[in-house]
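=== RUN LOG ===
request id: a7f3
mode: sequence -> structure
chains: 1
length: 337
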Amino acid sequence: MQKTTSPRPLSRSLILSIVIGILLIVVSSMVPAGVFTWLWDKLNIFATVFLGIFIEAIPYLLLGTLASGLVEVFLDRDQMSKWISHRPVAAAVGGAFMGMIFPVCECGVVPLTRRLFNKGLPLSAGISFLLAAPVLNPIVVLSTAAAFGWGNMLFWRMGVSLVIAIVVGLVFSVERDPSNVLRPVLTLSHEHDHPREAHTSFIEKIRQALLITADEFFEMGRYLILGAMLAAALQTFIAQSSLLSIGSGPVLSVLVMLGLAILLSICSTVDAFVALGFMGTFSFGSVLSFLVFGPMVDIKSIIMYSQVFRRRSVTYLVAIPFMMSLLAGVIFNYLQP
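=== RESULT ===
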């Protein structure tokens, strides 16, 4: 006698999918058609802003990770100790002026600074370099001069940024144990697989540098994408006109521009041209604070800082430049006629 097989019961996941599908159909039928149009427009704006930030920043992240790879392969600790003093003030000043050498913005400077720390760069020098390089590097100097000319805005942007970078570097110099500031750095696997020897050929060193570049590019690129997404979301769903409408007065205007610096997350190589558009509406001091603070702290750089520094250190890296940029902007607003 042949047995009859009972039908197999539907799986739980299939039932759940059917229920969710029915709910979505019911909800969508109750939502006005205009909501979907509004949402589609917002998604288009989000995608445009995200791609603008990401495409603008990605070449400089690549440049910074390439510099990081070259530093790891071609620079040793003895050379670093010869070039940079370990005395706090000299180290902070030297680190800040190092920013004039490396053409990296706020995205590329983070992996490069982490590699320099790994090579024995003093903490105060590394912090000063991290904050100063996005403003003092040759590309940003030329772009600022192209936007504002070789005048007061360029001079004060470089000068105030230099002072803030050195002061923050000196604040961190009181910490004798770098492990209290820096997160543990994981040694890359290929550095074990390919140890450097005295007779290593130049081509082999270049290959090792490119391997390190690729590893760090993909590691830091994740946080660049996350930061760009957050910045794009804020720009999409928070009306900038509402911020600009309250940007009057010597103090409030500076606060608004500092908020915009974090919100917009513009690469320091082009932020001068954006700031130029604010000159007709905002005061000299508020625009200056935007140009000083923006390259030091924005959404994507905060996220990238958190992969190099401990949480408390990131708080100082954000709060001290913010307060000093606010103070500088307010002072210039009262001094300017």
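=== NOTES ===
The radius of gyration is 25 Å.
The chain has one domain: 43-335.
=== END ===
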